[in-house]
């Protein structure tokens, strides 16, 4: 965020240190941090009154907040974003965490889904949060495509893969489509389908529609485009979102307000059909990305944080994502390298299976 970066540049050394220690104290304890505590840890010897004045200035800038009448402060969402972008120190992956994650690959099974399920369990256990693993879409070569009209507003595309896998996906066809237009669209696609994956076919179709649009009935052309789009935009029929570690967010001392936030978080997850949003989030930047509170529309109600990273197949194409969700006071410095390593681990797993 440019706003957070500009604020950081405007702060002097004392303000930066007070701000950093408030955030670090809050992330460690979950409790507001008071001026008296800070005076014992600051590198510069100053009075509690001076620290309180600095904290008030930071509160005026929107970086800190006073949740109670007491003098203690907690970081706001803007403050956390500024800390993560400008002051966060990311540690190295601990050897014990690496060993636990590596142990998930101990099986020689070809069941990628089962392996990713174990990766999710391990990631949840290592981070003490809730883990997310978006499994890859089915990318086997295709054999045949058919469009079936169900009503004026609903149609079915039947996708037959060369390995025998069959998928049926519902979508909204162009208005006024006819059975003949649907047959024409299917025939046009099937002329190019053999041996190509869905993503490869999408690229070919985009080129062919432009080049040969006059040969196609306008409705059939729209149906081809609509069909290709639905294969990419609705991967929930061919991808799976694994969520593990709900119990990790339900500590014995959790306040009722926190329990309600966690309930909203998992309600959000259970309602989301378009899990491609995780891929969209991951694809917007390289490596690990951190979304705090309402920055992440998936969890806007719960005010949770998401640390997410994409993983790639042997062709260096993003095919899934792994992440950790939890309260905004996550230990970001520790979580980031864990998520990064897990994404690399899953990427190698997928690439190895793809090359067999």
TrEMBL record:
Listed GO biological process terms: negative regulation of DNA-templated transcription
Keywords assigned: Repressor, Stress response, Transcription, Transcription regulation
Matching InterPro entries: GAF-like_dom_sf, HrcA, HrcA_C, WH-like_DNA-bd_sf, WH_DNA-bd_sf, WHTH_transcript_rep_HrcA_IDD
One Gene Ontology molecular-function label: DNA binding
Spans through the membrane: none
Location of the Heat-inducible transcription repressor HrcA C-terminal domain: 115-336
Record-stated family: Belongs to the HrcA family.
Task of the protein: Negative regulator of class I heat shock genes (grpE-dnaK-dnaJ and groELS operons). Prevents heat-shock induction of these operons.
Name the UniProt record assigns to this protein: Heat-inducible transcription repressor HrcA
Organism for this UniProt entry: Citreimonas salinaria
